[in-house]
Design goal:
about 60 residues, two-stranded antiparallel sheet, 2 helices, 2 strands, elongated
Length: about 60
Amino acid sequence: MSIHPQIIEKDGRKAFVVLPYEEFLQMQVEIEDYEDLRTLREERASAHAEPTRFLNDVIKDIQH
């Protein structure tokens, strides 16, 4: 993704960035995707300590 920012200065210092709207929307999507991936990785890491069961065993328990 390439972006085309416009930097606006205030009192001689960089203060604001203006992006084309389409680039802003794309950045929002990418940030949401990153947050989803981070959450998934955190859940996977914590799930390693959880006990696991085979699907067939769960189905048998439900049927009985």
